[in-house]
Amino acid sequence: MQFTITSKRVRRLCALLVSALACSQPLQAVPTDYTLISFDNDLFSGSDQDYTNGVRLSRIFADKSPDFLPSQLNPLADHLLPEQRGTINGGWFLAQYMFTPEDTDRVDLGPHNRPYAGWLGGCVWLREGSQEHSRSIGLALGMVGPSSLAEQTQHAVHSMLGGTKYPWNDQLHDEPTLNLFLRDRRELTSGEALGFMPYSLHLELGADAGNIRSALLSRALLRFGQYSGVYHFPTERFGPGPEILEESVDEGKFRLAGFVGVEGTATANDIFLDGNTWRDSHSVDRNTYVGTLVWGFDLRWKNWGLAYAFLHQTEEFKGQNGVHSWGSLVLGISF
After folding, report:
1. Most buried among 88, 197, 249, 331, by the most CB within 10 A?
2. pLDDT digits (tens, 9 = 90+) for 151-168
3. What is the pLDDT of residues 191-219, one digit of tens each?
4. Domain housing 69
């Protein structure tokens, strides 16, 4: 299916978005928990390669007192934000991620095609923070290789949609994975632009360590309009789930926000590019530094939320065919 985007249509869409964003009012904050389903796919950008699919179910617990934690974890929470005691929250997710090469017709992938790979696993995290500052720590456990069931999942979906069945040769071998992570987020500024447009700018730093990935990362995210109290950077896969900063009272109103952000990573190892840790497997020549641009919109009505992000990532390895793009859809409900 094809459609034509004219400059007149673009101007009309922008005018509608600006009008909706400008009509928003500040929200009251109330505690709430969240369940989210996330779906990533590069089908949205017209390709089927590299990071090609991801499905994630997340449960987030918000605004808890320190008694929310088992007593053994209270000392850990005391060290998250030593300069201030914020609210405790955390959560878990279950996910499956899928990676495929660019040339899916080749039996011998060669040096410029990443290996077939899948990951199946979960994550738990603990977070303490406030609107202005939060810190998160957590652990992700899972499995790469045939036991991730990525090959079976892709074949089942392609069969239903009439797509091509890929050979899944040179797939990573089975390997259990363990990754630790740390995230530190700060709100740099917030207010109203031009006297009518609410906005907030956040900076996030992080570190990952494990056989999935070891890397340092930095992110900046600008939100504007009537944004929800859920902070989420769309590139997050193995780290903590979305953060609940504040939530709105159910007024039955339709709300709209936009966001734009950037991420930079410096990576020491990535199993999906470097291959298995303890066994020989297919690999590619990984780039150490990678940048990602994200932008999108966030819709909210009552206790339902819907966000969609467009992501554009620079080349992760030598021989990759330019920038890789995909879309990320998140559906959430608060309780």
Report:
1. 88
2. 999 999 888 887 788 889
3. 998 888 999 999 999 999 999 999 999 99
4. 27-334
Q: Is the pLDDT of residue 120 over 60?
A: yes
Q: Is the dihedral of CA 105, 108, 112, 116 positive or negative?
A: positive
Structure tokens at 266: 């410096």
Residue 177 β-bridge partners? 142
In a domain, 15, yes or no: no
- Six token digits for residue 228: 């929800």
| 65: its two tokens | 């007192």
Coil, strand or helix at 266: strand
How far apart CA 27 and CA 103 sit, in angstroms, is 49
In a domain, 327, yes or no: yes
- Name, in order, each residue with C-beta under 8 angstroms of 88's C-beta and a sequence gap of 6 or more: 64, 65, 66, 68, 69, 77, 126, 127, 128
Residue located via tokens 């920038």:
323
Residue 10 falls inside a structural domain: no
When divided into structural domains, the chain yields a total of 1
pLDDT of residue 127: 87
pTM: 0.85
Are 239 and 208 in contact by the 8 Å Cβ rule? The answer is: yes
The residue type found at 249 is V
